[in-house]
Amino acid sequence: MFLLPDEFYKTDTVHRVLGNDPINGVLSCGFINKKTKSASDNNIVFEYYGALLLLSGEGTHIDSEGKEYKLYPGCFIQRIPGKPHSTIVHPDGKWVEFFICFGKGLFDSLCGLSIMDKNHDVLYPGVNYALLDMFINLQNQIKNLPVEQLTLALSEALRIIFIIYQMHQQAQSSDESITLVKEACSMLQKDFEIKLPFSQVCHQLGVGYESFRKTFKKIVGISPTEYRVQSRINVAKSLLLESDKSIKQIAYELGFPDSYSFSAQFKRYVGVSPSVFRKKY
Prior knowledge:
The protein is α+β, with helices and mostly antiparallel strands. The chain folds into two domains: 6-172, Jelly Rolls, CATH 2.60.120; 189-281, Orthogonal Bundle (Arc Repressor Mutant, subunit A). It is 46% helix and 19% strand. It contains nine helices and ten strands. It has helices spanning 104-112, 129-144, 150-188, 198-205, 209-220, 224-242, 247-253, 259-270, 274-280, and strands at residues 12-17, 26-34, 41-44, 49-56, 59-62, 68-71, 76-79, 85-89, 95-102, 122-123. The strands form two sheets. Strands 1-2-9-4-7-10 form a six-stranded antiparallel sheet. The protein has a four-stranded antiparallel sheet with strand order 3-8-5-6, with no helix packed on it. Strand 5 (59-62) and strand 6 (68-71) form a beta hairpin. Helix 6 packs across helix 9 (274-280). The model has no long low-confidence stretch (mean pLDDT 92).
């Protein structure tokens, strides 16, 4: 769990310019502690690229189309050049951000190469102490490097942005995997009377078999085949205890070819035969 140390609940910023162009040459960063709602940014437009990672506190971001995003630590807000937006700060004094700004021309070039994304105001990379150390290092570089070496600080700023982008992509990929695994589990828990190979489940979900099989086992702890068998056995337990259906009827209902194969598999997983289980419980 990330807890921001107390010494960062203050405003400490640095602003430099590469060359003579204050818009395309801007290079700035720093920590900002916004303590009141009046510190919010209402319908503002940046001429250059700006971004902030929320380290503490909560708020709301409103994009140019009026869509609202709830903000919390680990949210990364992009101020796209020329695009109006608002960032509303929850007035509890806990808001601390670290921001990075650089020129519009560079940002446009990176978007043109599909390295950066101007279509999403808010990303969700999360936050950790390694990032905090990077922020401190960047701030020191921009403060202390001579003008002729500021490009080193710019390259470090870009490296941090790229890391944040990568963290967002990894987090999104993880969320998508969990969603797909939930869908797969739902499919594997029903229609036991039909044969349902996991390859067929993957086909219906539109994902590759081998990689998703590994993802499924990593998240659930067992293979998809094992999960379907265990789900079938769990239903069998319920039917044995809560219905008057015969073992043969239950076997057919759950897709077993006969009561013998059903009893063998049931005993393998439960430890006793279906008839003993029914009498015992």
